[in-house]
Specification:
Layout: E1 18-22, H1 25-38, E2 44-48, H2 55-65, E3 80-84, E4 93-98, H3 113-117, E5 123-127, E6 140-147, E7 153-160, H4 166-184, E8 187-188
Parallel strand pairs: 2-5, 2-6, 4-5
Antiparallel strand pairs: 1-7, 1-8, 3-4, 6-7
């Protein structure tokens, strides 16, 4: 199997992208909450960005919208944190993986990686997915977060593969982010 880097892989037709500017951490968390309301059990979200880019802030927003009552933190040392969604949450569970400390792809099996990327009883969010570049799931939403100022971030989202399953959902995500940006003073790129 040829290693895949989530930041460069696009199967088929070029995937549509959604670019959003976040003005501050609270805005990033609000975008995470909008993303959570859009997610469905079985979805996998790959978060790519430098240290301090805001990946965990986005996950905290997702968790808040899923009514997670536990304190959400980056699972850098545990590698995996599991959270139950609250009553009436749009998804059942949140599986949060942080692969930053992985020494090699052979360690993926020790954390049950294959099980997490194929779970249908919740949403799996993976920080540092490039550490598993040869073992990415077949379907995912890639979110690339780039610092463009002290607090400002650009979030670029692209579904993979680009197919009829993602198209209507992706249009809905764009509408949700437009609503968040209208309320938070941010703006949408393209």
């Amino acid at each position: 199997m040829r290693p895949r880097d989530p930041t460069t892989v696009r199967r088929g037709v070029t995937a549509p992208t959604l670019n959003v500017i976040s003005e501050n951490p609270a805005h990033t968390a609000a975008l995470g909450a909008a993303l959570a309301d859009w997610l469905r059990d079985g979805d996998v979200v790959l978060l790519h960005g430098d240290l301090g880019a805001g990946k965990t802030t986005l996950v905290k927003g997702i968790a808040a919208a899923l009514r997670v009552i536990d304190v959400v933190s980056s699972p850098s040392f545990a590698l995996v944190n599991e959270y139950d969604g609250g009553l009436l949450a749009p998804v059942t569970k949140l599986y949060h993986l942080d692969l930053y400390r992985l020494q090699g792809v052979d360690e993926l099996a020790s954390i049950g990686y294959e099980d997490y990327i194929s779970r249908m009883d919740g949403v799996t969010v993976i920080e540092w997915p490039e550490r598993a570049s040869g073992s990415l799931p077949e379907r995912y939403l890639l979110v690339e977060i780039t610092a463009i100022g002290e607090d400002r971030r650009q979030l670029r989202m692209a579904p993979s593969p680009n197919d009829e399953t993602w198209s209507p959902r992706f249009a809905d995500l764009r509408r949700r982010f437009d609503a968040v940006n209208a309320a938070n003073g941010g703006h949408q790129g393209q």
